[in-house]
Amino acid sequence: MPKKASPKPTKPTTKKTAIQRKSKKNRGKNSSEYDYADKKAGHLKKEDNLGRLLLLVVQQKVKLMAINLHNQSPSNIKLKIHQMKYQFNTYKDKYKKIHTKSISTGFGLTNEDQKAGI
User: Between vectors from CA 116 to CA 112 and to CA 118, what angle results, nearest 5°?
Assistant: First the structure.
């Protein structure tokens, strides 16, 4: 009489279970995601949003100013956008210094101020 083959010992499975994805129909139905987004969106003030909008508008205008200057220039000066932005910021800083000085003194600039580079 032939012997029956003994069953092979099974290995314990170390396979990780797959992460179940939500179906496309159910993906957007998790209300906790929307609640979190609503809470986070409310922390900005109206002034913050206006500041961000102004920053985007100013960047576009600086680019347009650089392109316009390049097109109007009679020589072959090729200013890049970051160079034009740097030049614009230096003029803006000088204007702020002059403006604050004239407001604080009540008068225009003196010769000493002009020599100092203000």
Answer: 100
- DSSP letters for 17-35: PPPPPPPTTTGGG-HHHHH
Q: Flag whether 20 is in a domain.
A: no
Separation CA 38–CA 1 (nearest Å): 77
Token pair 């109007």 in the structure block, residue:
72
What's the pLDDT band for 60 if we cut at 50, 70, 90? confident
Token pair 């990780």 is found at: 16
CA distances from 82 to 44, 52, 56, 67, 87 (A): 29, 19, 15, 12, 9
* Residues of the chain by 3-state class (helix, strand, coil), percent to 5: 60, 0, 40
Q: Is residue 4 part of a domain?
A: no
Give the chain's domain count.
1
DSSP 75: S
Q: What is the pTM of this model?
A: 0.28
> Highest-confidence range of 23-27, 56-60, 92-96, 106-110, by mean pLDDT?
92-96
